């Protein structure tokens, strides 16, 4: 599996880190996947297309066969319209989106690159938040469900506690979050630390 982060360093364009996931050997069964689409900034699509022109994607295969949206906030979904027009990908999201929306459910299995992934409904940051866990490599694409919670001064919905508890039970080895650098070591401790701080915070029913 190849994971290619896509993010323009533009202080005037608030956007998530998108992840373009390809199979290691470009096999026909691989699914070239884009996790989140960034913002609607006019240069966003141009940037994505330039980056996608470089790696090998498999003979006759579209660069983006499917899009998976971790949630519906603008900085994660704004680029979907342009990518829809360019690639017409299948789109998986908790709330239907895109020209070719596909139904989703908690626990369903998708192929991402050359690996199987579990789609997990993880409400808390938003009601429609999802994460993707790839058991073969312990890879977690967490959207905004996981971010660096370093104190217990915030307030969180009970659903968020439950979502973090669920993630803490997984054998996570690497986290690719919606913002910031990937966490490639100490992932279990990172999740436990976030969960501990949330548990000590104000929990809203």
Automatic annotation (TrEMBL):
Superkingdom, natural source: Bacteria
Example of a GO biological process term: antibiotic catabolic process
Family: Belongs to the metallo-beta-lactamase superfamily. Class-B beta-lactamase family.
SMART domains the record matches: Lactamase_B
Domain Metallo-beta-lactamase: 15-179
Cited SUPFAM superfamilies: Metallo-hydrolase/oxidoreductase
UniProt-recorded name of the protein: MBL fold metallo-hydrolase
